Amino acid sequence: MADSPNCDLKSLSPLQLFERVTEQGEKVRALKAGKAPKDEIDAAVRTLLSLKLSYKTTTGQDYQAGLPPKDLVLINNGTAKEEDEDLVDPWNVQTSNAKGVDYDKLIVRFGSSKIDTDLINRIERAIGQKPHHFLRRGIFFSHRDMDQVLDAYENKKPFYLYTGRGPSSQAMHVGHLIPFMFTKWLQEVFDVPLVIQLTDDEKYLWKDMTVEKAYEYARENAKDIIACGFNINKTFIFSDLDYLGTSAGFYKNIVKIQKHVTFNQVKGIFGFTDSDCIGKISFPAIQAAPSFSSSFPQIFNGKENIQCLIPCAIDQDPYFRMTRDVAPRIGHPKPALLHSVFFPALQGAQTKMSASDPNSSIFLTDTPKQIKTKINKHAFSGGRDTIEEHRKYGGNCDVDVSFMYLTFFLEDDDRLEQLKQAYTSGELLTGELKKVLIETMQPLVAAHQERRKQVTDEIVKQFMTPRKLAFEF
């Protein structure tokens, strides 16, 4: 019996509707290929047509296979309009709101699911310990199919982690640590393999740098990543410029993805134009390929059905929406995702930081004096214009960058809440809040620098050598 459209289609996001149409289309093709009875095929086709109609009514666009909808937000009359308040794509993040991007709207636009209390409690039950403060505080706020990952874990089925870094500069900033800090915690509590992709090829294609410089940045960034404390027996770090030439499994998956994504589709997803080089157009398949276990035969013993979980900032989601659309068509499970918010620039949460602006963030190479100067001089304040006004009306933690940074790096929940209450009431002044942040960041960065000094070129080589990890598959 064919699926019938659910009565709750109106509650689905454009992307969820797109996925429903795609799945039903695959079912129709399977029924035809299997020479199913005519009435069963006809019923499945009617369901498909009904879903396509719902999709067009919701988005104002005809369904096109493999081309997810543009990021849209529904308005009251059932039509759709482009959301122009926040610009979020893999290369740009901009908002006019001093509080930063509206993540609730972004969840609707991207069609992901909110990480709610129930999911956090389920993670706590699964791992038998308190969830990371990034989860408790909503820093990782959105997901795709995390429930499936937990189902697998509870049923003793394997999964693996995949995250990455685009090495655009020699020095990383503290915002770059966020996905790696969280990924390290995930790896430890679930005890799973991890692959880390360094997209030096991407940076060569997008930036004004040589191939040699991109590769050099990748190896330098690998030292900072290793300094986060990853287990060498459970972690494989790879440069695209290196690994693509040595792994037949990796390249085969890239080619399969490329065959199933058209130029029109990548233009629609990523905004490429006719004047972009063909390297940019083909790159999304390279970022997608680590989502499939057969890209790492040395780790997974050639198995193709091991699900992947990807912790990343939500601006990377377009790559993996494309990946999730392609996955079932080439015989792989869809990757699951955990999305983080953006780490704000010191000057305010309207944009994410730029590695090319030394004053936009605290870099992992900064001295204690530089950290103090940057925070005191550049950290956007939520305080009042005068001490008298601040004492009377209090500060605004929603826009104060020092408090935002403490939300990321101060692990003590009680201490953070005390600071929030004191600043909001006017008891704590901006300079005093900045002092707390300085005292938090100086030892954190200094400790990272000490660990990085211990990372030799030989250790980097070991992490980046394709090999079997400490797992059996």
TrEMBL record:
List the InterPro entries hit by this protein, alphabetically. Answer: aa-tRNA-synth_I_CS, aa-tRNA-synth_Ic, Rossmann-like_a/b/a_fold, Trp-tRNA-ligase, uS15_NS1_RNA-bd_sf, WHEP-TRS_dom
Q: Which SMART domains match?
A: WHEP-TRS (SM00991)
Any matching Pfam family: WHEP-TRS
Kindly state which keywords UniProt assigns to this record, in alphabetical order.
Aminoacyl-tRNA synthetase, ATP-binding, Ligase, Nucleotide-binding, Phosphoprotein, Protein biosynthesis
Tell me the ranges covered by the WHEP-TRS domain, including all copies.
Answer: 13-69
Q: Which GO terms describe its biological process?
A: tryptophanyl-tRNA aminoacylation
Q: Which GO terms describe its molecular function?
A: ATP binding; tryptophan-tRNA ligase activity
Q: PROSITE patterns attached here?
A: AA_TRNA_LIGASE_I, WHEP_TRS_1, WHEP_TRS_2
Say which enzyme class the record assigns. ligase
A single GO cellular-component term from the record reads: cytoplasm
The EC designation for this entry is 6.1.1.2
The family annotation for this protein states: Belongs to the class-I aminoacyl-tRNA synthetase family.
Identification of the protein by name? Tryptophan--tRNA ligase, cytoplasmic
What is the source species? Bombycilla garrulus
